[in-house]
């Protein structure tokens, strides 16, 4: 439902008008823009949107508004925006058009991936803008349903060259996280001069100056307050008598008084219109007829300019719509919703029908509660996790019997948790705990509370909470209890040294080892939790057989998807503990693919983070950057703010301390604030790696010693080779020997060239034996660990040079230098270059030509185009429009000095 817009430019908004005019000029030249207007109610956001609608000549304008009562309905706002454009969907790739059909309920199918749906909307807007520039105006964006808000925010951030302008109006103090970080204009009250001019235009003639100044001060220059006050207080303003008492926060009360003064039939018609989020005039008149209301009931409201009824219903301002609903009594609102439910087609819009029915219901009603539960299942299938959660939450309120009420509260809490609404989940868990009829329901509530606390607040408390839930579940549901121990182990790993007392990794591991097995027989998850726990309590040699069994089982293509999604990151950690690079890569890759397919964004962000580190270790910096772009997209959609481990290691690779250290310090501070010891450990590892590349061995030793402290299983093991190298180069021999001994315990795994290669490299640094250096190069040469191999060659070359075997040293150092350069490991490349110079080799310092340097996204698009992918195919992979791909390629061609795709291969090879 949209609101009626103005026809003249608002006073006192020259800065905002200039910005909007520039945005319209930009889309007329083929660019795109996105903008957020923020301000209190009445500051003129809707007026500015109306100005845009009236002045964007030659552009198509689509205008929608978020509706508070539609917060529970998935894709509601998105459907408002896209419905007039759906005839263009045939031009989209089939997966995208299918995603839209499923999202809008036009066809059945699995829940559409949010990224695919977002890309479909982006493509739809680009198709519409191909005919004429497109202006999309979204009023009251604070009331967009969560799914629509995420997708529209996703689309707005990817606009580049589609001739599309998206403007969101948000009422403060709301701060939708889907719009965070976008260009913003904040509207404050009018300056005194402009406020006086506005009042003078509304009330021709003399205005009492003292009264005028007091009114402007009380309203703080709020334009809508001044307009409404002038309509109702002419005598007081003109002569200084009967001064109305009004402040900005009382605008709603002013509208309430005016609407309550209308004839009863008119007021009820406005209530019906406000209660229906679709703005469908046909539905309104069908419901009105059932209440005995005719067309004459609309006349007083139209005369007051509250509403305009045509094919769609339009309120003059969102506050009027709110007031029209609030003016009705509780019974009148229930009557309105019941009339709308009866008027809604149960086949075409079953979810909205039951939603109206629930709003009309007082007290427990099992039939309606069950209908809400079924509706929630349907909308969740279409990808509306947040909407499903809201419908389930309403079903809880309508359920009288304690057992079913607890079950529905648990389901609603789980849905809110999946949707990222952690505080709502915690509120529902309190209801579930109060309504629980047995220990199992209570224990399940405790489990969900632990997961919600972990996600919502910090890592410190979660291990203890989940451990308590696991112990409580043991006599009730041993299978769920063991899964909860696995959750607790993962939480303890993340919390690390910051875990609350009783929640340390060793304590959780001991409890998991002591837990009984399921009498029905073992499952893959049993070996996983047992192996990870034994790794901490008994050491690698005891844990490895169980970890190998678990990894093999989880990587079976037939393994259940839901179970893998929940434990996929721990499977990857198990493969890391086995020093099995191929299994580590496969486990993380499968986690990424399954998370993408399921639209499970939280596990996808974790899986992408791990996959980036894996790509860096195999020396594929381009792939790491590609995954980084996707990871950033996921973090934008979910509002995640945590630093990416891939970003940290990439900075360490680059070897620019002035760039890296501020980021590392910020990441460490954030990890400390959230109680995430693993994040702190990864930051220290990246710091050590940075300083090793730069040859700052004392600094590297300090950071590596911190990273290798404690016992975080495979993550501690990975830090030990760096500590050995840093300590050896700092002449701290005892520290190097101690780290080597610890590494030998972690690396006691058969048939791992990775473990054997790093162990041999570390022995060489401590003992100085050439056979160890040679074994390290040979063993790591059998793996895809290019970075570790290059480091082994560098260390071997350094040793050979010190042994005055310059020719042999040059062979190793040249091979290492070429690898480091190819991988973009500039710090290590420079360290290697200095060693080569010391052997008498002439090596030019590596420089970057900033004139033709491509951005990461430009380089990625160039390589995909070189490999034969079309613009739509590239756009589908990168979540941008085909027109944006074309725009990027034009820039690539200019930077590389080429004129066609056929020349990309040679140009990119030359840059290497």
Look at the structure and give the mean pLDDT: 85
Largest sheet: 5 strands, parallel
Shape: globular
Structural class by helix and strand composition: mainly alpha
Enumerate the spans where pLDDT stays under 50 for 5 or more consecutive residues: 1-7, 233-248, 847-851
Describe the model.
It is a single chain. The chain contains 46 helices and 7 strands. The chain is mainly alpha-helical and 912 residues long. A hairpin with a 3-residue loop joins strand 6 and strand 7 (313-315). It has a 5-stranded parallel β-sheet, with helices on both faces.
Structure summarized in a few sentences:
By secondary structure, this protein is mainly alpha-helical.
List keywords for this structure.
single chain; 912 residues; mainly alpha; 5-stranded parallel β-sheet; two-stranded antiparallel ribbon; 46 helices; 7 strands; 4% strand; globular; disordered N terminus
Layout of SSEs?
Layout: H1 14-28, E1 33-39, H2 45-55, E2 60-65, H3 76-82, H4 94-103, H5 114-131, E3 134-139, H6 146-157, E4 164-171, E5 184-186, H7 192-202, H8 209-219, H9 223-232, H10 234-239, H11 251-260, H12 264-275, H13 281-290, H14 299-303, E6 307-309, E7 313-315, H15 318-326, H16 330-343, H17 350-359, H18 366-381, H19 385-397, H20 402-419, H21 422-435, H22 439-456, H23 462-473, H24 478-495, H25 505-514, H26 524-537, H27 540-554, H28 561-577, H29 581-598, H30 601-617, H31 621-638, H32 645-654, H33 657-674, H34 677-694, H35 697-707, H36 714-729, H37 733-746, H38 753-767, H39 770-781, H40 786-802, H41 806-823, H42 826-838, H43 856-866, H44 871-878, H45 882-896, H46 904-911
Parallel strand pairs: 1-4, 1-5, 2-3, 3-4
Antiparallel strand pairs: 6-7
Helix pairs in contact: 4-5, 5-6, 6-31, 7-9, 11-15, 12-15, 12-16, 13-16, 16-17, 17-18, 18-19, 19-20, 20-21, 20-22, 21-22, 22-23, 23-24, 24-25, 24-26, 25-26, 26-27, 26-28, 27-28, 28-29, 28-30, 29-30, 30-31, 30-32, 31-43, 32-34, 33-34, 34-35, 34-36, 34-42, 35-36, 36-37, 36-38, 37-38, 38-39, 39-40, ...
């Amino acid at each position: 439902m949209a609101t009626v817009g103005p026809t003249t430019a608002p006073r006192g908004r020259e800065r905002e008008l200039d910005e909007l005019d520039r945005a319209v000029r930009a889309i007329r030249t083929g660019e795109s823009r996105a903008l957020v207007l923020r301000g209190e109610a009445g500051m003129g956001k809707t007026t500015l949107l109306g100005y845009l609608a009236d002045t964007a000549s030659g552009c198509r304008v689509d205008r929608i508004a978020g509706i508070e009562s539609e917060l529970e309905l998935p894709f509601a706002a998105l459907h408002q925006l896209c419905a007039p454009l759906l005839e263009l969907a045939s031009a989209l790739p089939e997966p995208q058009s299918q995603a839209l059909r499923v999202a809008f309920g036009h066809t059945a199918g699995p829940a559409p991936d949010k990224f695919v749906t977002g890309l479909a909307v982006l493509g739809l807007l680009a198709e519409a803008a191909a005919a004429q520039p497109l202006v999309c105006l979204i009023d009251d964006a604070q009331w967009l349903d969560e799914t629509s808000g995420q997708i529209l925010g996703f689309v707005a951030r990817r606009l580049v060259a589609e001739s599309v302008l998206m403007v969101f109006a948000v009422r403060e103090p709301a701060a939708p996280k889907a719009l965070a970080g976008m260009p913003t204009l904040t509207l404050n009250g009018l300056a005194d001069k402009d406020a006086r001019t506005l009042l003078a235009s509304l009330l021709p003639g003399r205005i009492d100056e003292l009264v005028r100044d007091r009114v402007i001060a009380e309203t703080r220059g709020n334009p809508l307050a001044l307009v409404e006050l002038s309509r109702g207080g002419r005598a007081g303003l003109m002569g200084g008598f009967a001064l109305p008492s009004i402040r900005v926060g009382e605008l709603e009360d002013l509208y309430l008084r005016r609407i309550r003064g209308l004839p009863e039939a008119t007021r009820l018609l406005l209530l019906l219109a406000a209660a229906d989020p679709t703005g469908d005039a046909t539905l309104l008149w069908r419901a009105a007829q059932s209440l005995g209301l005719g067309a004459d009931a609309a006349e007083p409201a139209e005369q007051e300019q509250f509403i305009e009824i045509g094919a769609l219903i339009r309120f003059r301002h969102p506050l009027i719509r709110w007031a029209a609903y609030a003016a009705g009594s509780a019974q009148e609102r229930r009557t309105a919703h019941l009339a709308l439910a009866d008027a809604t087609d149960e086949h075409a819009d079953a979810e909205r029908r039951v939603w109206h029915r629930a709003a009309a219901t007082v007290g427990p009603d099992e039939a309606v509660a069950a209908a809400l539960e079924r509706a929630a299942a349907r909308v969740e299938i279409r990808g509306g996790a947040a909407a499903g959660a809201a419908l389930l939450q309403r079903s809880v309120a309508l359920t009288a019997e304690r057992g079913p009420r607890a079950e529905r509260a648990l389901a609603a809490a789980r849905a809110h948790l999946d949707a990222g609404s952690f505080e709502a989940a915690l509120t529902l868990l309190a209801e579930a705990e109060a309504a629980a009829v047995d220990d199992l329901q209570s224990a399940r509530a405790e489990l969900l509370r632990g997961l919600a606390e972990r996600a919502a607040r910090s890592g410190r408390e979660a291990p203890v909470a989940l451990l308590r839930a696991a112990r409580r579940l043991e006599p009730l549901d041993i299978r769920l209890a063991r899964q909860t121990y696995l959750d607790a182990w993962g939480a303890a790993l993340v919390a690390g040294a910051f875990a609350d007392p009783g929640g340390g990794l060793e304590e959780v591991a001991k409890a998991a080892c002591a837990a009984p097995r399921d009498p029905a027989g073992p499952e893959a998850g049993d070996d996983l939790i047992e192996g990870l726990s034994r790794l901490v309590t008994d050491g690698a040699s005891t844990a490895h057989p169980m970890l190998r069994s678990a990894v093999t089982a989880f990587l079976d293509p037939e393994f259940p998807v839901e179970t893998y999604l929940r434990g996929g990151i721990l499977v990857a950690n198990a493969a890391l503990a086995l020093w099995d690079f191929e299994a580590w890569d496969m486990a993380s890759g499968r986690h990424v693919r399954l998370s993408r397919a399921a639209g499970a964004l939280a596990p996808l962000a974790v899986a992408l983070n791990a996959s980036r580190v894996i790509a860096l270790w195999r020396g594929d910096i381009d792939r790491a950057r590609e995954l980084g772009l996707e990871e950033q997209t996921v973090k934008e959609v979910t509002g995640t703010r945590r630093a990416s481990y891939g970003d940290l290691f990439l900075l360490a690779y680059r070897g620019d301390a002035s760039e890296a250290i501020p980021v590392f310090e910020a990441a460490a501070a954030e990890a400390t604030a959230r109680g995430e010891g693993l994040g702190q450990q990864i930051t220290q590892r990246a710091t050590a790696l940075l300083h090793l590349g730069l040859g700052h061995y004392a600094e590297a030793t300090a950071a590596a010693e911190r990273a290798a402290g404690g016992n975080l299983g495979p993550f501690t093991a990975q830090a030990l080779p760096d500590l050995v190298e840093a300590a050896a180069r700092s002449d701290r021999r005892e520290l190097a020997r101690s780290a080597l001994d610890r590494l030998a315990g972690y690396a006691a795994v058969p048939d791992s060239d990775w473990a054997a290669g790093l162990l041999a490299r570390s022995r060489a640094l401590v003992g100085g034996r050439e056979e160890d250096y040679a074994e390290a190069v040979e063993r790591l040469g059998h793996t895809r660990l290019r970075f570790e191999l290059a480091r082994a060659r560098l260390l071997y070359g350094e040793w050979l040079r010190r042994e005055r075997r310059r020719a042999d040293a040059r062979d190793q150092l040249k091979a290492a230098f070429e690898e480091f350069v190819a991988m973009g490991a500039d710090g290590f490349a420079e360290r290697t270059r200095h060693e080569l110079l010391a052997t008498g080799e002439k090596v030019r310092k590596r420089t970057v030509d900033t004139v033709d340097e491509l951005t990461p996204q430009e380089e990625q698009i160039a390589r995909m185009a070189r490999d034969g992918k079309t613009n739509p195919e590239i756009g589908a992979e990168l979540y941008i429009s085909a027109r944006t791909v074309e725009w990027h390629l034009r820039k690539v061609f200019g930077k590389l000095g080429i004129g066609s795709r056929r020349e990309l291969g040679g140009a990119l090879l030359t840059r290497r």
